[in-house]
Amino acid sequence: MFTKKITLKVIATFVVVFSLASCTDEKVPSKAIESVKALPQTVELAVYKSPSCGCCKKWISHINQHGFESKVHSFDDFPGIKDEKSIAPRYRSCHTAISKDGYAFEGHVPAKFIHQFMQETHKDDVIGLSVPAMPVGSPGMEVGDKFQPYRVLLLKLDGSYEIYANVQSYEEQF
Q1: What DSSP element (H or E) covers 45?
Q2: Domain-by-domain residue ranges, the chain?
Q3: How far apart are CA 44 and CA 26, in angstroms?
Q4: Which pLDDT score is estimated for 51?
Q5: Distances in Å between the alpha carbon of 125 and those of 92, 95, 128, 151?
Q6: How many other β-carbons are positioned within 10 Å of the β-carbon of residue 11?
Q7: Are strands 68-74 and 43-49 parallel, antiparallel or unpaired?
Q8: CATH number belonging to domain 42-173
Q9: Could you read off the pLDDT of 53-86 as tens digits, one per residue?
Q10: In Å, how far are 9, 27, 28, 48, 74 from 36, measured between CA atoms?
Q11: What is the C-alpha to C-alpha distance for residues 101 and 104, in angstroms, rounded to an integer?
Q12: Rounded to two decimals, what is the model's pTM?
């Protein structure tokens, strides 16, 4: 719902700015156009998860609050998605999100790093990002004020990885 409101605001702003521009001989102030360009774009992710997983629901809330729109697919047997995306078992977690570009985001990857990843250009051998296991304190795995440092991995088709980010504190995730 939050992302739909942003989308409606963007559309309404465009309509107002361009309506005003077409009704007058004066130029539209560049600040008005810049403010429209600065609004965040919603990115859609297809999320595959177990219907009973509570931490997955919390992670989905996290990404939806940070500029993503999730299309959730809940079913009990979804390892096929992980196999299809060539995510090796050692990098797997409880849920998998897939972007429209086909990139996979496995486990509790913070929205911050998904946005960063999607703004970059990647080689053809890159699958996406993973936070293997379920580190305490990662988005969706909050337990009071406890936090376990973890790594975000850049996954490759050959089964190898590179460290994409080291997350040493709760605040570094946002």
Answers
A1: strand 43-49
A2: 1-39, 42-173
A3: 38
A4: 78
A5: 18, 22, 9, 20
A6: 10
A7: parallel
A8: 3.40.30
A9: 777 788 999 999 998 999 998 877 777 888 889 9
A10: 9, 16, 12, 33, 36
A11: 9
A12: 0.74
